[in-house]
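Exam revision sheet. Question 4 asks you to relate a sequence to its structure. Input first:
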Amino acid sequence: MPDVLLIVSGITLGAIYALVALGFHLIYRTVNVLDFAQGDKVVIGGLVALSLVQGGVPLGLAIPLILAVGAAAGVLYEYVVIRPSLPRGVDAAVVATVGALLVLSSGHILIWGATAERFPPVVGGSVTIGGSPIDLQNFVIWAVVAVSVAAVALFLAKA
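Answer key, structure tokens:
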């Protein structure tokens, strides 16, 4: 694999991890609780989106739909996991998120299995850089992460 492709793949994977870390940061800054289930909530969102697409829902509709479902699930998660445990202290809330992690990770394995799946690209095509074909999807991921980081930074600066 040429160096350019390795670098682009590494930056893209790092950007995806940064987006998950941004979720950790946003939750911690707003609720003061480290949410250990954050990663599994991201996985479940992706698996639900994949199921919608595989079920025939067009990608352009699946993305806003999963964002709405994810927002609703986040509110439900706050009322079921975070709020009931916070009066008992931050430690109790963190333990509750560990419990949620166990439930969510086991749940998505039971429902979708443990086999890796590939989500279809939002955009197709590629460009050649340094003799290596780079999928345009990488640039979409970078743009989404950049906009998300900027939006969260702006939100937290105003909060």
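Marking note for examiners. The chain has five helices and two strands.
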